[in-house]
Amino acid sequence: MAHAGKKIVVKTPLVEIDGDEMARVVWQMVKAKLLLPHLELPIDYYDLHITKRDETEDHVTIDSALAIKQYGVGVKCATITANAERVKEFNLKTAWPSPNATIRSVLDGTVFRKPILVKNIPPAVQSWKKPVTIGRHAYGDIYSAVEMVIPDAGKVELVYTAESGAKQTLKLHEFDGPGVVMGMHNLDNSIRSFARACVGYALSEGIELWFAAKDTISKKYHGHFRALFQDAVDAKKAEFEAKRISYRYMLIDDAAAQMMKHEGGMMLALMNYDGDVWSDLVAGGFGSLGLMTSVLVSPDGCYEYEAAHGTVRRHFLAHQKGEKTSTNAVASIFAWTGALAKRGELDKTPDVVEFARGLENATIATIEAGTMTKDLASMAGIPAAKAASTEEFIDAVGKRIA
After folding, report:
1. Could you give the count of Cα atoms lying within 13 Å of 229 in the half-sphere of its Cβ?
2. What share of the chain is helix, strand, coil (3-state, %, to 5)?
């Protein structure tokens, strides 16, 4: 922690990516109350408020990802992903794509999500005693898919045209009436970097590694993933044996059944969509998306830490009316601390790492002492009336690091 009157110096700028709605309010509160009083913190700031993305034709999102490539570490607030309702609400030019998906595509990273364990927030799954980490491939699949609504009868084909001009054609479906179709892709380089990242994470943490897909049905697409993942495991076979860590490939439905009976303490590697769904499932099982860390790791060693939850629109509407909210700030705090700890590690400034870990410990200690927001209070068996407001919780954490 910082000494009285003396701030800890962060040497290299941290890329800060601001967001939307209540998440944005909490984000700035955490920064103002828990970080800036203790740190000299250089920031390379990018505002991804939905109107700013619209003004810049979404270039600000790409710029923020490129800044992470430049400086190595970024920290991101939750952002709105536009749909038809949001386009109308903010009078947008178009429904801009998910900022997270855009940043993941630029960095070609793997997302690791891990629950934050708190003694007085018991997991919903009684067998879970240790964290379940989700490793999510963060490129392609439905997030980069092309789609078409089929108006009437006709044939849809997949056509591959080689640079030489040679063509391969595969009939997708013969429609006898209206329908819908999707085409998606992935890249060997991205799949291999995902597999290497998951293997590296499991080895560094000393935990069992699972990979789950459905290659019995998708023999080529999922089967290709399985084969390339196995290559990455085989390349580190000696390290797995030395650390007595096992690797298991499972069909995803089998993995789901086994996870419900497992004590945890493993990492489950998943393809993009599966990882999106399962990270929320695991978060809910351990308490909340507000009790989940999330980091995007790129193949070239760049890191983006983020709050795993959304923008908490319902609370923002109450906040706009001047009402007090009880919004969980834990994931936002841990996004900042994760980024600061990595920044300190890369800069070789142990006092920055120590501050980040101390803030994490103070946050958990505050909850375990009985001060928590309404979402956590309901799981801890505390009456809602005794739950802390957003600001009260952050202030309570602040007192522990003063």
Report:
1. 26
2. 45, 20, 35
